[in-house]
Amino acid sequence: MKRPCPTTRLRICIFGLALAAAILSGDAFAKAPKIAPSAFKPGQVIQDCPDCPEVVVVPAGIFIMGLGATSKKSKPAHRVNITKPFAMGRFEVKFSEWQACVDAGGCNTQPDDHKWGKKGRPVINVTYFDAKRYLTWVSKKTGFRYRLPSEAEWEYANRAGSTTKWWWGAKVDKNKANCKDCKSPWSDGGDALHGSAPVGSFPPNRFGLHDTAANVFEWVEDCWNKSHKNAPGDGTARTEGNCRYRVIRGGSFYYYSKVARSAYRAKNPPNVKSYWLGFRVLRELD
Q: Cβ distance 97 to 123 under 8 Å?
């Protein structure tokens, strides 16, 4: 018996039915029906397949990147215009979502969970190149373009309209994030609990995104540049600079709250993985 489409996800469910019809008729995923970006509403949750990450529609807008930065590498603060809405991972990509890629032959690594367990947790121990393979697989599976966010898109989505040190305010609040001094069960429980938290363990920001501050660092698309000097004002990724390193954002459970500030930037070699590093997807809407 077929279940009716939930009202809150009607457009997505319609897409799923149209896609199923396309598959039955022999059409490839690359011919997935397109929906105009204007049809999506900010905060709307999209899930293109049962094993795909949930993404949340983020509106277009203007923000000041690097606002409140104390380090030279996060300066100068500059205006960025995000001209088109996009959809960002509601959570960091989970182990279960990664496993779907492995099972389908799109990903070829089995990341270690550091003995924390995989259920509900963000996938860790993946390189930049591993993340790109996953994104290629989910793009082919759905017919929509999934990619890493640019550094500017990531900061815009993380800030969600805020201008403070962290998206929630100017001080470290209890139970807002998972970092070394963030006053959460994972940070205050000693070594036995010191590690990643299951995704969604903390409240979302104003755009509906969870864990953009701390939990695990997240790969973004940009090559490393030692500051924001000459950074593009349109939100695109910087593909020039020292590409022996890629930018990572958000901080993690392993580091203190200052590393989870919205403006904080760090780098990592693209072929090096870590138990404090994962990623989040961006899905284009056009």
A: yes
Q: What is the pTM of this model?
A: 0.88
**Choice among 33-42, 74-83, 208-217 with the minimum mean pLDDT:** 33-42
Would you say domain 42-283 falls under CATH 3.90.1580.10?
Answer: yes
Number of H helices, E strands in the chain: 5, 11
Listed in order, the ranges of the chain carrying CATH 3.90.1580.10 are 42-283
Asked whether the predicted pLDDT for residue 77 surpasses 60, the reply is yes
Residue 154 near residue 218, CB atoms below 8 Å = yes
Helix (H) or strand (E) holding 63, with range, is strand 61-65
Q: Count CB-CB contacts under 10 A for residue 265.
A: 24
Distance CA 125, CA 27 (A): 36
User: 185: burial class by Cβ within 10 Å (0-12, 13-18, 19+)?
Assistant: exposed
Answer left, alpha or beta for residue 6, where phi above 0 means left and psi between -120 and 50 means alpha: beta
